[in-house]
Amino acid sequence: MKKSILPTTRPTNEDELFIISRKAYELAMNNQYEEALLICEWLIAEPFSYIEGLRSRAAVFSRRGDKEQAILDWESILATGVEDPGDMFSVVMLYLKFQRNIEAEMVCDKGIRVSLETDNHFHLSSLRMLKAKALLRQFRAKEALVELEQVPDDGFIYMYGRGVRTKADMIAQAHQIIEQRRN
């Protein structure tokens, strides 16, 4: 690993932090994982950039295929008390990939609550759809339908390994589960 890849000065504001974390992401996109991780560790070492360093490292691990390590970093972020629905969205996507449906549901609940409390609707529909997916995997179709009622009719989400899932797709799946439970 080349230490020369590291910036010469620590970031002092969000713009500088973004530039450095973006560099780690670009390195990971070019399969230069060791260099990317070196930057992430450098960011993690300082209180100001600790959270962003964890976010960047989680992205690098995820890109490298080490999803379990990425989950640990996202969980570390949430354990600090950070209440960013984007962070919650990221860990839920990984939880669902590993069939960790109850954990996904719990984090979605928190993300939905935070989104509503802060009037931040950017991730709200996605978190509702992810929660519905976690509920469907637990055969809790009626609860999933209640969640999906809150999603706009044109709602959709990309699911790892499944492609795009629309609200209509998920409603149909819920009704299928309900029907199978009747028989």
Question: What does the secondary structure layout of this molecule look like, with pairings?
Answer:
Layout: H1 14-29, H2 33-44, H3 50-64, H4 67-79, H5 85-97, H6 101-117, H7 124-137, H8 141-148, E1 156-159, E2 163-166, H9 167-182
Antiparallel strand pairs: 1-2
Helix pairs in contact: 1-2, 1-3, 2-3, 3-4, 4-5, 5-6, 5-7, 6-7, 7-8, 7-9, 8-9
Please name the defining characteristics of this protein.
183 residues, mainly alpha, two-stranded antiparallel ribbon, elongated, 9 helices, 68% helix
Task: Walk me through the structure.
It contains nine helices and two strands, in the order H-H-H-H-H-H-H-H-E-E-H. About 70% of the residues lie in helices and about 5% in strands. Helix 6 (about 100-115) packs antiparallel against helix 7 (about 125-135). Strand 1 (about 155-160) and strand 2 (about 165) form a beta hairpin. A two-stranded antiparallel sheet has the order 1-2. The model has no long low-confidence stretch (mean pLDDT about 95). It is elongated and about 65 Å long. By secondary structure, the chain is mainly alpha-helical.
